[in-house]
Write a structure and sequence with these properties.
There is one protein chain. The chain is mainly α. The protein has helices spanning 3-28, 36-39, 45-48, 51-70, 76-110, 145-148, 155-190, and strands spanning 114-118, 121-125. A two-stranded antiparallel sheet has the order 1-2. Helix 1 (3-28) packs antiparallel against helix 4 and helix 5 runs antiparallel to helix 7 (155-190). The longest helix has 36 residues, at 155-190.
Length: 202
């Protein structure tokens, strides 16, 4: 097993996940690919926080660049110093992806902000948010999706798919960053490759 090769693989794997996160969060800001909802402030709160853009997106992308470039360091001291830096990089990406995962799970749980026909008439609110403990969650009652929101049309499915995608990408990022943290720690303790540390026959 080679520490540098594992670091390189993790760094490369984080790139498409970061791009997917940014794309998913960007689409959440534009229900039905229309700009007017964002301009009018009628976008789900968790989407406007943009954690898929700056956390699981930009920050993870920058960390992946550092991981890939640092995996080519040679020399025992230089390599161990770089691995120490990469522990810090991984921790930053781990926290960023974790924040995105929590925010996305909250957005998925409460449902979208939309124009809802309530007893008080048409109002912008979050109609699918679970109000009572005895209520079934809206994710398990798809028949409520079409009736819940007058506008934007199909926003419930839009949010479910994109927040689920954000949860998946950020969750994988958390696992990869945790694995890379352990890999970097092993690199500090054992050097660039475990094979090189084996004792040969006398």
């Amino acid at each position: 097993m080679c520490v540098a090769r594992c670091s390189y693989c993790v760094g490369v794997s984080l790139v498409p996940l970061a791009i997917l996160s940014m794309a998913a969060n960007a689409l959440l800001l534009f229900p039905n690919l229309e700009t007017r909802f964002l301009l009018e402030g009628h976008v789900t709160r968790e989407a406007t926080w943009g954690t898929g853009l700056w956390a699981s997106g930009f920050l993870v992308l920058m960390v992946s660049r550092g991981i890939v470039s640092g995996s080519s360091k040679t020399g025992c001291c230089a390599f161990k110093a770089e691995m120490l830096c990469q522990v810090g990089y991984s921790f930053v990406a781990l926290v960023a992806a974790g924040i995105c995962f929590l925010v996305s799970s909250t957005g998925l749980s409460v449902g979208p902000l939309c124009l809802h026909n309530s007893t008080r008439g048409l109002n912008w609110e979050v109609p699918l948010e679970k109000q009572l403990i005895r209520d079934r969650h809206y994710l398990f009652e798809r028949e409520r999706w079409a009736l819940a929101c007058v506008e934007p049309q199909g926003v419930v499915l839009w949010n479910v798919v994109l927040f689920s995608l954000l949860m998946a990408t950020s969750g994988i990022q958390v696992l990869l960053c945790a694995a890379h943290t352990l890999n970097a720690l092993l690199g500090i303790l054992c050097g660039p490759g475990f094979r090189n540390n084996k004792v040969g026959p006398a």
